[in-house]
Amino acid sequence: MAKLLVLVAIALLAISIADSGSKVLAKATEHSEEEYMPASNGQGTLRTYQCPSQCTRRCSKTQYHKPCMFFCQKCCMKCLCVPSGFYGNKGECPCYNNWKTKRGGPKCP
């Protein structure tokens, strides 16, 4: 009888630990998209998974879409920033603005 009582107590303890552990795990993995959305387009405000969509927006009105997307994504992955608008506004992202080619021209579109 004592063995049965100990076994039941251990089972209840294991269930309560498992239940509280799953609540902590659920809390840790629960997040809203708002926490990943940048407040502004300043340097380092994006996550790497946001680069393709931001570069699609940035390069949507150029006739050189493929090179624009290639360099924009390269710059975004490094700087974690894409300036607002389709052209210009590079002052919002100093890293994006200051990265130059070997010839001294702008690397980022």
Explain how this protein is built:
The protein has 109 residues and is mainly alpha-helical. It has a domain of 51 residues. 51% of the residues lie in helices and 0% in strands. It is built from four helices and no strands. α2 crosses α3.
Tell me the layout of helices and strands.
Elements: H1 2-29, H2 51-58, H3 65-79, H4 94-98
Helix pairs in contact: 2-3
List the uncertain runs. Answer: 22-39
E-strand count: 0
- Dominant shape: rod-shaped
Strand content: under 5%
Number of DSSP helices?
Answer: 4
Radius of gyration: 25 Å
Summarize the structure.
The protein is mainly α. It contains 4 helices and no strands. It is 51% helix and 0% strand.
Summary keywords:
single chain, mainly alpha
